[in-house]
Design a protein that fits this description.
Two copies of one chain form a homodimer. Chain A is built from 14 helices and 17 strands. By secondary structure, chain A is an alpha/beta fold. At the A-B interface, α1, α2, α6, β12 and α12 of A face α1, α2, α6, β12 and α12 of B. β12 of chain A pairs antiparallel with β12 of chain B.
Chain lengths: ~450, ~450
């Protein structure tokens, strides 16, 4: 029986999960892969805390460099995260001819092109299924199953924390801060939740998927990113009345010479299967010319779901090693010489439909003033509703538009928000896959 | 640039789709796979009808044996279907050392063990992603992504025709025969729809998934199969009132030394994502100890979705050939020497909850008589409702049970149906994933 030796960097949540599966599932994995996968070294700065794993003596060490420099190790699992030490260790492992498995989307989204170059140069694999969508095999599906498809769009709920928070606001009518605190109490959100709730994590993942699907160089910087912290129970309630839910979506569309790529709170109709994805679950829909729409759905984070993807990658590499086929699939799906720089379309040029909410004083002529400004900018209103009557305080005026250009929308909202009769900043939520039937 | 030569047997719906993708998408596929995939020969008894494809001269021929015997062909696509000629041609192709791609679930479910043996003996691949779930990469997900998971259950909507028919009955209240005629008019159902509506097609697919997930020999004969032809709008309406939809589900559960394996109309609660799978779509949920539940969703049939899976398999094999790695993954996921005969649990021993509908005369004591018989057999009633009052005709009495054994249920229903006060045969629909809140 052949043996494949694995070294792991970092034994936090995902690392612990991967170690548990590799050790407790060793017999099962062996019966599928046909080789013994041995966890030879695990490095973490903390080797004291009990992980509930029985490591063999000498396996659990402090020095990560000993793992990447160990000549007996075939595959290195980078489970540290971040873009500094993790990157240095990963590059050294590649330099040493080791194959790498990682869940580090931030690193890949920021330095993916460089890592691709290094790995291709050394003929080693860098596998990263766990970096997008946790246990969902979205990377494998795009790289392998959809080879015959021209992929035209991807739409994903790619951040479980945001989805949990929006689900709480939707189901319980609580404010964002309350829902965030609940997410933190449940262990879904970090102490500093900004990477999640401000949309960066979802954008990292979208940058990776875009590269795979469209054959483009990784481009994180040009993705438009908007988080969920300004979403209120009031807007969610209005959305429901129009037949929509609000989700943080990562959206990309191939537009010939450029791609749309954006992460923002989005209204989607109840009929869209993504609208039913609750709790901290993830889902992603890929649109291809042969498959039409295909959707994957599952836990996008958490110890064992993420570790399941890590172990799937380990098995893939092990099977390649056993067949002498390392590098049988290009790192980013396309042959390296076929990867292009495809520009991301400026957000201002994108046209879609919108939901607006204005807090306006209840005076005659208010609606006509707002509608007039929208009209000046070529934005036509599909439906409008003014809620309640108040002689003193502002009342909400809610609108859905026909298709309009983002630049025009921004210009119009900027003028409207400077009106005396409008209190607060207008709320704008973009609509995707509109259901064509939004009359209230 | 290397070239991989493909021969195709049968140019019907799926074959035509595969040829279109391979020819029209040649450049795209090449940029991903790194080799030219050439469709060298296509055989069909009808080479006259226009498929909308521009074959090179000499490619489209009548003689299928010339394809499997052509020494230049690397991969054979078996797109004929059926278990006779398709099998002979496939076995000859394997014998000639060619790799095979097929969508033929009936053949695999009936002769998969034999095909596995032949392919393993010759060191060739037989790929069959398109045989289950059309474009959904369920085979790849189980064989590759879930390697670290002990899979405990699978639940799938695996027949698009049945799902279309049940969706029509649900949405429009039409009878089964009307919905079937609509499915046939839309091209979803064959002239002889029995393979679909009687549940056999879904059972073929389940037999394949069971082998992959549990490491068992293919076993079609012991799967309990019940079709949808007795489902009525009335039962669907009652189901809705209890919070359930009725779907034809393929269900399997690993029970240690045996597996449950059954295909039948099933009530699932609205909260189960499978309940939202409409039209002729397919979806399958896999439960594993690391991933919890993971779901794939997409078109399970149709020219291009199915062909997309075929081309994905072709790309997989091509990548193996380019790396000299043919056979890098065992045909049925487990190493051949680790595949076991795992018995299918007799249906009579399975316990679950049930929906019953009795057509009973509206006389005093009827309910007590029915309930008494159920009690005699150890079946306890969770809720009951009698609809309307009629002095002459029978009225429906509807019940949901607590967990009961199938053998007891059958015995009780047999006694109840022989009562004078009960007209018609009682209706029994099994419940899965009960929502615990079925009071009407």
């Amino acid at each position: 029986m052949k043996e494949i030796r694995i070294g792991m960097l970092g034994c936090g949540t995902v690392g612990t999960g991967a170690a548990r599966i590799l050790i407790n599932g060793a017999e099962l994995i062996q019966s599928r892969v046909g080789a013994k996968l041995t966890l030879k070294r695990v490095a973490d700065i903390d080797t004291e805390t009990d992980r509930g794993i029985r490591f063999e003596p000498g396996v659990f060490i402090n020095d990560a460099w000993r793992v990447v420099d160990d000549p007996e190790i075939d595959i290195v699992l980078e489970m540290i995260g971040g873009k500094t030490l993790a990157k240095d260790l990963m590059m050294r492992a590649i330099e040493n001819g080791k194959h790498v498995v990682t869940a580090n989307k931030a690193l890949l989204a920021s330095h993916g092109n460089e890592i691709l170059g290094a790995a291709t140069g050394k003929g080693v694999e860098v596998a990263y299924e766990a970096s997008v969508g946790g246990c969902m095999p979205i990377i494998k599906t795009i790289r392998e199953s959809l080879v015959g498809n021209r992929i035209s769009a991807m739409t994903g709920i790619l951040n479980g924390t945001c989805n949990y928070i929006l689900s709480r606001i939707t189901d319980e009518g609580v404010e964002f801060e309350t829902a965030l605190a609940q997410a933190q109490a449940e262990g879904f959100a970090e102490a500093d939740p900004s990477l999640d709730v401000d949309g960066f994590d979802a954008a990292h993942k979208l940058a990776i998927l875009n590269a795979l699907a469209y054959g483009m160089e990784i481009n994180l910087d040009d993705i438009t990113i908007e988080g969920i912290s300004s979403i209120t129970p009031m807007d969610i309630a209005f959305a429901r009345r129009f037949g929509y839910k609000i989700k943080l979506l990562a959206i990309s569309k191939h537009r010939g010479d450029s791609v749309e790529a954006r992460v923002h709170p989005t209204m989607i109709p109840f009929s869209n299967p993504l609208s039913n994805v609750g709790a901290n679950l993830n889902a992603v829909t890929v649109t291809g010319d042969a498959v039409d729409d295909i959707m994957l759905y599952g836990y996008g984070a958490g110890m064992l779901p993420t570790a399941s993807a890590v172990v799937g990658d380990v098995a893939d590499i092990a099977r390649n090693l056993l067949s002498g086929a390392a590098g049988r699939i290009p790192l980013f799906s396309y042959q390296p010489d076929r990867i292009q720089k495809i520009p991301v379309m400026p957000m201002d040029e994108i046209a879609m439909t919108y939901y607006f909410r204005f807090a306006a004083l209840d005076r005659p002529g208010v609606l006509s003033k707002i509608a007039g400004i929208l009209g000046d900018h070529g934005i036509s209103i599909k439906s409008v509703q003014q809620k309640g009557r108040q002689s003193e305080a502002a009342v909400p005026i809610v609108m859905m538009t026909h298709e309009a250009r983002e630049a025009d929308v921004k210009a119009a909202l900027s003028r409207i928000s400077s009106l005396d009769i409008v209190a607060d900043r207008p709320v704008l939520i973009r609509i995707e896959d509109e259901n064509g039937d939004e009359e209230m």
